[in-house]
Amino acid sequence: MNNSALIVIDAQAGMYNGNRIASIFEGEKKVQRIKSLIDKARSKGINVIYVQHDGSKGHPLEKGTEGWMIHREISPLEGESVITKKFPDSFQDTQLLEVLADLSVTNLYIVGNQTEYCIDTTCRSAFSKGFQILLVEDCHSTWDTGILSAAQIIQHHNETLGNGYVRVKNSEDITFDEFEGSS
User: 52 near 70, Cβ under 8 Å?
Assistant: First the structure.
């Protein structure tokens, strides 16, 4: 029995197509890395679960718009779970916890967007729910702010979350055997 899942958070077209000031930092590079991880996960029988943000009217991820769609390069296959959310926490008011329980998942690999919001909040929430978490350090992204560059935000969160909440590992080194007894 496999008790791991790859959670793909907010990897939606609106994050990559410039609906904001600019596309997300290294967006297409990150999509290709996520695609490689998804392919590897599927080949090893790892559950792939997508979390899709339902933005409000006028938001780049407005439900039902082109920006809301999951990036075409990493679209879910038929039968893969797609969880919709309205908050940074992928567990808040969603079916994610129930889906993970139904699949007997205890170990999470986290990738996607936006580092300081949905990635951070979901990692902390999953930790508080008892999951073992591996944050794929080069497979989440954000935008520059007036204070920090996107690269600094990503580095900061890898360091902060990796100091007690999650394990952090580069996508090239992921084997999907990182958790003892995970397969």
Answer: yes
Res. 183 pLDDT band, cuts 50 70 90: very low
**Cα–chain center distance at 8:** 4
Which residue range is the domain that position 91 belongs to?
A: 4-173
Backbone angles phi, psi at 161, to 5 degrees: -65, -35
**Burial of 177 per CB tally in 10 Å (0-12, 13-18, 19+):** exposed
Side-chain-side CA neighbours of residue 86 (13 Å): 4
Please indicate, yes or no, if residue 24 is contained in any of the structural domains: yes
Tens-place pLDDT, residues 20-36? 556 899 999 999 999 99
pLDDT single digits (tens) 82-137: 999 999 999 999 999 999 999 999 999 999 999 999 999 999 999 999 999 999 99
Q: Which residues contact 126 (CB under 8 A, 6 or more apart)?
A: 91, 108, 110, 133
> Is 178 inside a domain boundary?
no
* Continuous segment of H or E residues that includes residue 41: helix 27-43
Residue at 13: amino acid letter:
A
pTM of the predicted protein model: 0.95
Q: Locate tokens 């990503």: which residue?
A: 154
Examine residue 38 and state whether it is found in any structural domain, yes or no: yes
Pair of tokens at residue 123: 């990692």
d(CA 55, CA 57): 7
Indicate which CATH number applies to the domain containing 16. 3.40.50.850
